[in-house]
Protein 1
Amino acid sequence: MITSHINRDTGIIETTYEGKVTFGDIVNYINQLRNIEKFPKRLLILSDSVHGRFSFTSEEDQQIAGLVKQYAPLFEQIRDAIIIDDPRTTAYSVLYRNASAFIPNYEFEIFSTRQAAIDWLLT
């Protein structure tokens, strides 16, 4: 399951992944970006996956990056910091980071602590 809210103090979209997170869950989450009036032009995303476990293939990682590439031009900048404490989720995240590296205004970084992720987002 994926839930999100905007932290009004920081302007960061805080997203929480819980339980098994599938390719379909990720696609549905990204498609929320269609409601562009709801989000700032400089999109800062804090993705907390400490209680979530990704379950998709490396090919689906590529498709997710392609979907992000479609929406990226709607924003001036997108920074996504993911917090992870699981080796399997880390592996999926590294594959995704590699697949999304070609998106010019999109940055994705992997963190083990919330504070380090927030510090990176706000710099």
Note: The chain has four helices and five strands.
Protein 2
Amino acid sequence: MPSSYPLGDPTRLGARLHGAATNVAVYSTAGDYGGSVSFCVLDDDGTERRFPLSTTPAGIWHARIDGLSPGLRYGFRASGPTDPARRIYFNPATLLVDPYALALTGTGTPRGRYSVLVDTTFDWGNDHPPRTRLADSVIYETHVRGFTMTHPDVEPKLRGTYAGLASPVILDYLSRLGVTAVQLLPVHESLTEQRLLDRNLTNYWGYSTIGYFSPNSRYATGSRGQQVNEFKAMVKALHAAGLEVILDVVYNHTAEGPIDQPALAWRGLANDAYYRFDPNNPTRYADTTGTGNSLNPGRLQTLQTITDSLRYWVTEMHVDGFRFDLAGELLRQHDNPDRAAAFVDLLYQDPIINKVKIIAEPWDIGSYDLGYFAPGWSEWNDRVRNTIRSFWLTNTPIGELATRIAGSSDAFQGTHRGPDASINYVASHDGRTVNDLVTFAVKHNEANGDHNTDGPDETAVNYGSEGPSVDAAVEALRTRAIRNLLTTALVCQGVPMLLGGDERRRTQQGNNNAYCQDNPISWYDWTPTPAASAMTAFVTAAIALRRNHPALRRITFLTGVPGPTGHLDITWFGPDGQTPNWDNGPPFLGFVLAGDLTGRVDADGAALVDRDVAVLINNTPGDVTVTVPGRPDAPYTTLLTTATDTGSPPAAAPSGTVSVPAQAIVVATAARA
């Protein structure tokens, strides 16, 4: 501890062990109202020791305390008035969580947790982030617990944990599948809302944060700090396997909920410094998240908390990126328009955060902001999701599909970003799995306890039979539809994201809002079946196809000008080989991507060019044979077809024409120019 801070370092928020001393610092406005703040340690025998804190003019309460050890539970008590009209809720009877706690216990009151002192010593060895280029990434969205809860080859005591996700069998599975990053549903410590507890349910997804620096103790073998090193060990193992770790983070609201709910941390320390308020009623929060409160990144204290948290997860926990839940909320600055988008600006210039992957969910309840984020940001592109689903399930015009395939320039061009700003997906945690899109025509959320009124309305079909079917013809239609949906996302310019388990035909039994289902509805079923094995083999082949052909992974928008081979960088055509009828043509779309420069040279030093790639998408009821335009001298060889279980094309000699079965996709390549 620096000698210049005999009462503790007020610049280091949180409670941090430094040898025999602990530095304690917390922000609170209690002093503005004649109050005070105490640091409280809870011994295992139930004894509470209180240490009064000194304050600075900036509202930082701090102390240096000797003799504390890792694993001790602690919290803060802030005294002062409670006055809703002035937006203040101090109450010394409430033990508050440290907003900067590195770990929280899994015990305490149903809506509370205790902060824990943590020994942060960890041997990272030669850990290095993979730093996969964004355009080369394939993201796998998954849940730490659900992924391994039933896996027979994961040690039983490790199932559903960080260590389970780091098991060799899981690392091997992900590596063979070909994905480059796992995007984890929230791993910050979270709480379950009382209404769910009353129904014997849990907030399984975890979008109810109580600790922005704390790994969730539910996924660890203990809750007295073990979760910190176990999370680090998971990241280290994933990195060693070449996989990046992206965290789904919730900086738009907290677990404290509406104003009439108990204070847990921020509300009891500095309510008006962290939250947004209804401009017509200062006793109520603004709520553009649907959760009862909204954090206010227009206030310096909130901005500091968010950016400090992000830097911590990058520097101390070695994560490789973030996906911001309801990121549209972070653009809102209702009460301070001069600070508009301050959060986005800060991340753009921050030398630590701007080195990792930054992904927005570009909307909230009151705004839709696709394309509005700054350079360096990527965005979930729901237009890709909606267009692909509509094309295959209800026949959207091919013009809209072409726009999505080409990288959604209508959303991102002119923002100093390329097609890799678009995160392309057909399914995510928020909705049906791909299997359920073609198995259940209506949602089945009865288990959530809201009379099936919750969850989004989605385009879905069941091919004549609601739910699982033993009809071979129905199953064949569903299987091909899944292959078509996933393949279309993988041939779009941008960054594909796969909902974990879709490669195995994972089902949630028709539930499209499984946020509260910590049970087999959400857990992956690892039972070996021919259907699961075949779909996994197909998705593996489709991902490999994308990896092996740079033309599918451009970083600039397609312009229709000659590429390295001398041909147009993209050529569109219909079933007759001519320019498509974009608005009223049949549901068939073909395109050729000119091969990219590979960066390699031949024996004579000439630059090598990747093969041209032709993609033919046929949603008509009949087979189509078409002559691919632009390269009549170059026969095409089929690489992948959705007409077969594994994607392998039937044996056939290369030819200048390509035959595409009904309701299928064929991807072919031309000989090198």
Note: The mean pLDDT is 91.
Protein 3
Amino acid sequence: MKRLCFLIPFFFCILFTQNVQAGISSVRIYSGEGASQSSVKLIASMFQRHVKPAPQILYFEKLSSLIDNLKEDTEASLLVMPGGSTILYEHQFTSKISSEQREFLVQALRGKGPTQVSYLGIGAGAFFAATDYKISFQMEDREKSQLIHYASPYNMKRLNLFPTMSSAFQDFNPKNDEGARFPIISLQTGEKGTVFWNGGPAFGSSYSYAYNVLASFDENTFAIVGRKLGENAFAVISGLQFEFDPYDSNNEFDIKDFPTHLHNGIRNGGIAKETAITVLKYLGFTI
């Protein structure tokens, strides 16, 4: 079976409005250590399919290169941290870039830099944007399966754009993707259907007071949330892998590559496209 590795460990707002066109000229996708290449490829395809005109897509294998490129660009852009490994993202951000580079990115994402930088974090990219988090997952040893709780390391640096978050479901096994599912969610537009989940976070009821909730698991548990960062700059974090659309003919996959418990979710009621469009509109893109 092919790995569905979008996330390896290691929240409905009453008011929602479509944001003003952000004028984003380029989408910078991190594709280096810790990034799921499946997620990277699908995110790029999502922008090319839905955004008109399609933005320039840039890939960066190192955070240092991405930040240096941002310094040279005065045009508004979007930084995307895809599904992957939260721990490896933290390691890159803590140990592989200078304190000056780290401060530049933090300030740029708070609307205090020379250019507008928006943010999209999916799965591990959502955890990476948190002040702190707790990831719960199943880990099997030779005798039994046990539930592991992994708290965000105090000595590792993150973006601190959103408050505390935790795993949406606790029965996910990162070694074999058992526990991955297509939960039913509700979009802020009122549409309901399934979207792929593979280990990402959920956001509690406190998020409804200060953030825009774009998608919900239920009335008190949210799946995708957003916030304003600066003038015409926004951030979205998602516990769902909405970049994966089983109904998109451009996605090359065989249903047999997925665990049998996912087949019905793949075949029935998917709203990945509608979810992606909701997120992209919130970020200010023209669809």
Note: The first helix runs from residue 37 to 50.
Protein 4
Amino acid sequence: MRIALLALALAACTTNNTTVGDDAPGGAPQAGLWHYSEINQVSSNCPNDVAQFEEGNFVIDQVSLASFRIVPADNTPPFPCSLGGSSFNCPDRFVETIDERPSIDAVFTIHATADGTFQSVTLGSGGQEATVDCAGSACALTGFPFPCRFSVDFVIAAGG
């Protein structure tokens, strides 16, 4: 069903990378190409066919001491992250609403967040959490629990 595809798309979205430089923690990450790898599925009540242990490249740009932007290589929109010392927070990693009406009475909402810590300007780690929700009479027909949530741990490194 479409929700399985949405969940797979959301999992693919989690393949974004962020990296920092070789300096001590507390600095801004290095701008440029980074690589992302999921290392652990923390939790999930999503369908078993949701992709796991994703990896891929991304770009960090618009770097300052307070924030940076991630440009995913998976064709999802770029998103901002705040930076506080060596910690980062990306509250809107991915946000999308898919309205299937009038074909079927279902409106899917997808929201993913990411946060973590830079160990250096070229190395970081963290977690991503995603939620898929559905509103409408057709949601129960998918056979999936709503909201569907999953979270993963990841590592990121500059250089792709």
Note: Residues 2-13 form the longest helix (12 residues).
